[in-house]
């Protein structure tokens, strides 16, 4: 494969260089100054492959046009004159336009040049450049161009070439800001060569030279509110037979006035005998006036402390530079945008009421605040965020759009992005707040406000209307009371004909109540809206107004507040006894668990006779679902006690019913069967599911959350459940739980509810689920949550922190006597190599850290720095063995200089013993 690449490169170079006929490098006088003269900005500073904000910057590196967000026109003019002579003057005129589209930025730049000077022997020409540019990934600008150059010097000629370039925009590092680097290749194709031989008879080559790579870097060395000082440098290798470099310095005052100076070096001109081919050592000078910003500052057009971006629409430039021989250029230029109204910000619409309520108590009812959102923008949407603040305006939670983080950036990825076209980031139909703070804890009950902010690529930024949400996890107050006597006869001529229920509580939006029979069928329903509970009198009728048959009934009322919290109260064993002779049997609970744990170990059956006169005998039986009797009590005459306790002895788990039969001397034998009672001594069957495995909460939008679900099967209702997550030291890291049966999947973002800390990379956390049913049976099941190697963003850098590679004491050896630790170490290194392979566009600095037990500088310098360096080097060697290019890897031992926790924290200082991997572009 490598030989194939070499052969392909050789063929490409031969085709590229063929139009020059293989002649030695010999451009005409001034030919290599081309990149400096096509832009008024570069006349002053020298060509800069990182300058996406230069006037006509795309005429050098096509990637410079990628950030144009409106139709931008650039123009320039320079006069060429020879000092100390009366020769005529030459002219350079440039005009270009960049138009943003949804596919990318399309540009058309042209340059006209005519020079009568032998010291700048370029003849007369016109070059037209077509440009395509895109920000293919955040901070990654790509551009390509095709050039047609036609003109005449010694002869007429037409050149057809192409160029491609990249600009990478970084943030800040080591006190420097707005760091950029760029690279490009120019002159791919048939170079423009209208010359024959020079004055010495040597064949001249094309200009600008074919197959010329260039690279550069620029950054602000000083940036304050009033002034910015910026350095820019560029190195190029024309035809791989020369080296040119330039350095530019600019000083900007309030982004209005900028002074520029530049200098250049051309190795081919060093020692050049021909003065016409030598460039003066004088520096170039320039002055830029940002008219748009000047007007904006004077008129006070500002937004959020910054100038409103559309005001920056007119810049002018004045430049002067020495060229080759005695030729100088003095030029001017301007850049402006056409048809630029105020940038329309995105429209952010929250399709919610102004005030909402929710209860994050994990009962499956209104646990999350769902915020339907719609964002409309005339440009491409760049980002959005949901911000929740408390009643004092202090931020509680910020939820941003997932970060687009390309792991591998190469030709296939760039081509794929170009084919996809520029596009807005996706916006979900609704945003979700689970009630947690940024530190992982559930927010306190209270009133909060929230809004959604969005911004587009045109610089427009806006936010939605503010909304209010009330977080409330307290159930509403509700109290129910009745008389002790719960027997009544709706058709009796005397005595109790109705049943009264006294109710009180707070005002709630919804109150529902039901009366059910012994089979659980609802025979009467009551509903109230937006009021306090009121007393209720039941006359023994159903929904149709018909008096119900004799039996045992249950009354239940539920109050639901605006947040979805519920309070339920129940009145058991309400007896309707209209017949003169009747019997009833009730149970004091619907389920019991005779396992000796002191919780619901027995059930008590109560007997009720409408009359005991002439009662000869009675019989109480407990029957299973097949009708088989499993327990019997019997007696003659009225029973001495009315309550019989059953401990379930000898009966298996199942559903049972009490049955009461009575015999009277006058021949009647009434019989009643009570409500079902569940005997349950078996703990719930619990299946714990944790997905994905591993999960990686590093903010890249891919498997950032752990889905935790409980599938519970049980005979009786679930009373409560709890999820506990423990760290590798066995300490509680995160927990949550609820009452009733778990009703949904629960998402965890990896942030601890006890410390607010994010999970550690490449670490397994023990997950314990505890489920208890209503009769006290408890099931405990365990699982594990595996955390992937996390690539964390810290400001402008990406890094990986691994704290559980186990080394031998005071040694860099990670293959130890413990086979389990060694196996785990090797698994981590294997996975780490996989991750780093995906980030093949980065160099990696491996940093070793240690615990300073004594806290002394001596231990740090003499022991810990060498030890942490050796451990970092051991990891480097292991990664090289796993296929990582050693040229990507460097090591640095930091000893105990950068602890995560104080070295005096005996419980947590183990965290300081770690290896970090800093990914560097």
Structure description:
A hairpin with a 5-residue loop joins strand 32 and strand 33. 36% of the residues are buried. This protein has a 14-stranded antiparallel β-barrel with strand order 1-2-3-4-5-6-7-8-9-10-11-12-15-16. Strands 18, 20, 21, 23, 24 and 25 form a 6-stranded mixed sheet that branches. The protein starts with a helix and ends with a strand. The chain has 5 domains: 2-337, Porin, CATH 2.40.160.40; 347-471, Immunoglobulin-like; 579-658, Sandwich (Immunoglobulin-like), CATH 2.60.40; 685-786, Immunoglobulin-like, CATH 2.60.40; 792-920, OmpA-like domain (60s Ribosomal Protein L30, Chain: A). It contains 7 helices and 54 strands. It is elongated. With 921 residues, the protein is mainly β.
Please name the defining characteristics of this protein.
Immunoglobulin-like; mainly beta; disordered N terminus; 921 residues; Porin; 10% helix; single chain
